[in-house]
Amino acid sequence: MTERHQTSTFLRNALIALAGIIVLGYALYEMHRLITGPSIVVKFPQNGATIATSTISVSGVAKNISDITLDGRPISIEENGDFSETIVLSPGYNVIDIAAEDRFGSTEEKRIEITYRP
Prior knowledge:
5-stranded mixed beta sheet; Immunoglobulin-like; 1 helix
């Protein structure tokens, strides 16, 4: 083989290997999202908290989701995953349910139990 032919073969093989690495990397990235599923972190209120006001803002961060609900109602999230929704509490014991689903159908639910004492 000539040196030129060897260089050409090396470059072709290197480009094929690079393309394979890129495809594999993307596949691993998508698999990671599939494996980890949706994630919800509630910043406020904390579970078990006692609240003195009748309205509160439920806030947190959701990752890898396509839909999110607060007590069964769809809520919107920011592009970075932040969400905040104001709710009205009943006197006494209150339960706040947050549910999220990703595009693969995996779900995550958080239940926050708080007490409203006026």
